[in-house]
Amino acid sequence: MIELMIVVAIIGILAAIAIPAFSKYIDDSRKSEAIENLRSISDHALAYFNTEHYYSSNGSDKTDGKYPGCQAGDNTAAEACDNTTDSCLGYPVSGSARIGVRMDPREMNWERQPWIRLAFHIESPMYYCYTYTTGADLRSFTAEAEASLSEEKDSKYRVTGDEHGKISHVIQVK
Q1: What is the average pLDDT across 102-110?
Q2: Where are the domains of the chain?
């Protein structure tokens, strides 16, 4: 009987150590999705920034140094930009309904601006919702990824680009 109690105690100690370590490993693997995708968004935004495009209402002014966006002067059809910078329109970003839930990217909003100009979309199931916004003059941007990975906390990452074409590192906001 004592031997059995010792075995149960050892199993309990191992479980107390292994379960939190395994949970952290799972969370870290989910967070890598956000970091990789935000890096991809920033790479595409920088490529667009360094390429000449037509701007202005008549579409005749060719310039570079602007990030893709949906502001006036971006020569974009209004119907392509109706507040669509959030990839997860219609999905709650946080809360108990979203804890650890993978979303089908085919139901996301990749066929609108600025995602089209960024040439960005995701094909595999995803935990994070992505947003992309630019400054009024299209010379800066912010991209964010947000998800509820556990009941304890939400997870949010951010990357930014400035008017000089410099991209920040991906940082964890919360």
Answers
A1: 82
A2: 2-172
